[in-house]
Amino acid sequence: MNARDYALHLIRQSYLPGWNKPTKLTPQNLDPRDRALGESIAASVSKNLLLLKHAIRHYSGREMKAIDPLVQMVLAIAIAQLRFFDRVPASAAVDEAVEQTKRLRLGRAGGFVNAVLRRATREPDLPLPSRERAEEYARTVLSHPAELFQRLVSLMGEKKALALCEKNNAIAPTIVRAGDTFLSHLSAKA
């Protein structure tokens, strides 16, 4: 099992909307670096689920219901790496996703995954709604469901609701305390 397979395992255990296919797979002998990368990828997919689904629809030219849920997960894992992980080369994200479809025995999905991800690497500027269209922006860019955003607006107003959604979606700082030394590192990308 590698980092991407572990990420897929974690995502499948999370019961994310439309992807509730839990597995009984138990990861064994996983390198700590692969475990850390897999956990980071899975967290990124969970946190940015609506944005990643938007990207899959855009780059594939298909509606989500026309794409097998397992293929959606493989694509989301790869697109998350392309968008949010600056230390993962695009070629590695694409190649690993194609290989993962082969390991999962998804038939001809490997060619589809390759085509979608090649387009994503050629066209990194994904069309997104503007911030002025607050509800659509919160749903698509910040991955906050419309119902949640509407509830936040009713509680605090649109401007504060949008600011809260942006804060929710910001990358948290990494803080390490080693003995009496306190180190803090703020990173823009995982």
Characteristic terms for this protein:
190 residues, mainly alpha, 2 strands, globular, disordered C terminus
Write up this protein.
With 190 residues, the protein is mainly α. It starts with a helix and ends in a 5-residue tail after the last strand. Helix 3 (49-60) crosses helix 4 (69-84), helix 4 runs antiparallel to helix 5 (90-103) and helix 8 packs across helix 9. The protein has helices spanning 3-13, 32-47, 49-60, 69-84, 90-103, 109-122, 134-140, 146-156, 158-169; strands spanning 174-178, 181-185. The chain is globular. It has a two-stranded antiparallel ribbon. It is built from nine helices and two strands; from the N terminus they run αααααααααββ. A hairpin with a 2-residue loop joins strand 1 (174-178) and strand 2.
